[in-house]
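Final report, closing paragraph on structural work. Over the funding period we assembled a curated collection of sequence-structure pairs, and we close with a single example.
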Amino acid sequence: MDILITGGTGFVGKHLTKALHENGHHTYILTRSPENKQNTDSATFIGYDHDVTLLPHIQAVINLAGESLFGYWSKNKKQSILESRIEITQSLVEMMSKMDTKPDVFISGSAVGYFGSSEDKIFTEATNEAGCDFLAEVALEWETVARQVEDQLNIRTVYLRFGVILGNEGAFPLMRLPVKLFAGGKIGSGEQWLSWIHIHDVVRLVQFCLNEKTIQGPVNATAPNPKRNKDFMRIVASVMHRPYWFPVPSSMIHLVIGEMAQLITKGQYVLPKKAQTHGFQFSYPHLREAINEIEE
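Its predicted structure, as stored:
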């Protein structure tokens, strides 16, 4: 396939493009500064102003770009988090509308934050109502813009709602840092759910959605065994052979990082029902094995 991708140089994007190249696909990576990138036999960097009619038939478009959630959530930061996702997705909608031959599939990133937070509800793709906090608002608006591709261009569209992605980049290195420093323990009450997925399964699931023509709409990109924060941190400490004894109050987290604290003091129990129903098999369905692989 010839695949157009945004966020191709990010955490998920780097792993995904590597796997796509190994499987014989060519990627056209959208970037704001293509002149600073080096093209290869399997990857071509192009700008957002590139004339898409000059590209070969793009069979799939994958949207992974957006302002990082990490950082103090000032008014400007929150605006950038939202607007970056909306603007990039809208640009893709316009690019696809100009293509003479439309892609077969559009995979657009989203997040389990769509559901809001809860300590007792179970969320699946059948959950239609979005939450009411900032992250839910971002995910809802992000998916609403992406839905134009399905509604107006009649392209099969998948909204991948990512959980916490485990690997040596992204959120996990920050989460395990207290454990490494012998100060690991639960965060806040420890009762908040953490829906996670190993980076290897993220890459496999994206490719599964590319090839499985019957799958569309929201797809939860989470492992089938969420963990409460207290259990998640205990397993991390066990794998790393560190003590588990130093609870961190939510008030301290809020004092240090402000509203962004909700990323770790709140959560949701999310199950990947649609992926499993369509036959996807997780390489790392259980947390201990996932952490073991990362720490090897």
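The longest strand covers residues 105-111. The mean pLDDT is 95. We thank the funder for supporting this effort.
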